[in-house]
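dumping this here before i forget
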Amino acid sequence: MENKNTKIILSLLILALMVGGFLGFTGFLKGEDGEKIIIISITNKEDNNEIMKEKAFRTTKETLGDFLEENKSELEVIMSDSQYGRFLEGLVGFNTESMMDGPWWMYSYESKSQNINMEIGNAPGVDDLGLFDGDKIHFVFTSDMDF
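structure:
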């Protein structure tokens, strides 16, 4: 009997931890509500050209995908829908021509308020990346997968 109660308590504890972890993770994905400033840098690594260096943008959008949609004209954004959410195909006139060979748009993400620093290639998809005031995103157009 005591062994059965221990198993039940342990199962409930594990379930509570999983739910708490999930809620914390989805909170990160959601981003911060309200107006914020994010800093954007853009580099074309194919020709070693720095296109934009730490330009500040005001936004109320909670995800990177929604921010890109909001600034579609200024940043010349091209995104396509996939089973995993929106995929960034084009930015500032440079477009991915071959999904197999590249070059592709990749990005790093730094959020001091969230104590997060994701190197290029490690950040989640544009619809899964929540935005917070002061975040920095560096887009890189590259065929190089070694970061």
